[in-house]
Amino acid sequence: MSGGGATADIPEERLRRQFEVNVFGPVLLTQGIAGQMAARRSGRIVFMSSVAGLTVDPFTGAYAGSEHAVEAFADALDQELAEFGVTVATINPAPSSPASTTPCSRRGRNGATTPPTGSTTTPHSPSRTSSTTRTGLRADRAGPAG
After folding, report:
1. pLDDT at position 4
2. Membrane-crossing residues (predicted)?
3. Chain segment 67-80, per-residue pLDDT in tens
4. Residue 107 to residue 112: CA distance in whole angstroms
5. Is residue 118 part of a domain?
6. Of 37, 78, 103, 104, which alpha carbon lies 20 to 30 A from 96's?
7. Which domain holds residue 46?
8. % of the chain surpassing 90 pLDDT
9. Are 92 and 53 in contact (CB under 8 A)?
10. What is the pLDDT of residues 85-143, one digit of tens each?
11. Residue 68 within any structural domain of the chain
12. Which is more confident, 18 or 143?
């Protein structure tokens, strides 16, 4: 859900709806499966975020705030589940024209060594990076590594 407007003027109801849809829904859904993945000692959780979770522009405060929250939850969950062999990443689509071949950036625990042209890749947990492609998303593929 995306809603624009001056941050000082966004009605409370619209602000709450923004966070209900973009943050609480995905996090609560993830809570329902994260324990099963930890018990299995493997898994990959991928959140759909947005480039707005990495930047902010005027009149995007509510949307960018909700997407920054998704990034923060993903970072925390990635660190919390690492000892159980579960990885967490986000996919960050950016606005693009129909002719674009690089519509998103991908972030994961170990980042990527060769991001697609026009895309940025940043590790979720820089202090715990790995040289293997088993963890996180690879920039040279459209989906999870594995």
Report:
1. 79
2. none
3. 999 999 999 999 99
4. 8
5. yes
6. 78
7. 11-128
8. 60
9. yes
10. 999 999 999 877 665 444 445 556 554 333 444 444 344 543 333 322 223 333 333 33
11. yes
12. 18
| Catalytic position from the list 34, 62, 63, 144 | 63
Q: Are 63 and 2 in contact (CB under 8 A)?
A: yes
pLDDT tens digits for 28-47?
999 999 999 999 999 999 99
The label of the residue with tokens 């099963």 reads 36
Domain count, the chain: 1
Q: Measured between alpha carbons, how far is residue 142 from residues 6, 24, 91, 137 in Å?
A: 35, 26, 10, 9
Residue identified by tokens 């950016």 is: 94
Pairing assessment for the beta strands 43-48 and 104-107 based on DSSP bridges = unpaired
Instruction: For residue 114, give the CATH number of its domain.
Output: 3.40.50.720
Identity of the residue numbered 46: V
Phi/psi at 29 (5° precision): -65, -45
Give the Cα separation of 113 and 69 in Å (integer).
26
In a domain, 1, yes or no: no
Q: Active site includes 84?
A: no
CB-CB contact of 88 with 78 (8 Å): yes
Asked whether 89 and 124 are in contact (CB, 8 A), the reply is yes
Identity of the residue numbered 99: A
Q: Determine, yes or no, domain membership for 16.
A: yes
